[in-house]
Specification:
By secondary structure, the chain is mainly α. The protein has one domain (13-126). The protein is built from three helices and no strands. The radius of gyration is 31 Å and the shape is rod-shaped. The two termini are 41 Å apart.
């Protein structure tokens, strides 16, 4: 009577376990990517909202300041004062644009933790 306890493919069990392990590993990494995406989305939405509120208040303050200065110098140096205010605003806009551009270039790498984990996984599979 033949022994039926062995499967017809003896290497099938370890191969399945290895494939299962690889898929579990990929699943974990994809979950990590999802978590990082959610965190990045929340951070960006928060920063954009606070930035818009700050810009709104700054614009209101600048409009009020411009009106105040224009009224104070209306009789004597009206166009010179308005030209000076315009130059200050333009300089401020250029400085802010340059700093924003520098901030974008210095942004952290997205999915940094996921990339580190993939590198660890690759190193693990390279080892004999």
């Amino acid at each position: 009577m033949p022994n039926d306890t062995h499967s017809p493919h003896p290497n099938h069990g370890p191969l399945r376990r290895m494939i299962s392990s690889v898929f579990a590993l990929l699943h974990t990494r994809l979950e990590l990517i999802g978590v990082e995406l959610a965190e990045e989305r929340e951070r960006i939405v928060s920063v954009i909202f606070l930035g818009l509120v700050a810009v709104t208040f700054a614009m209101l303050a600048l409009i009020s300041l411009t009106a105040l200065i224009a009224v104070a110098f209306w009789d004597s140096y009206r166009w010179q004062v308005l030209a000076g205010i315009t130059a200050v605003y333009a300089l401020g806009a250029v400085i802010c644009a340059l700093r924003a551009r520098a901030g974008l270039h210095a942004a952290p790498i997205v999915f940094e933790a996921t990339l580190r984990e993939f590198e660890k996984d690759r190193e693990m599979f390279r080892e004999p």
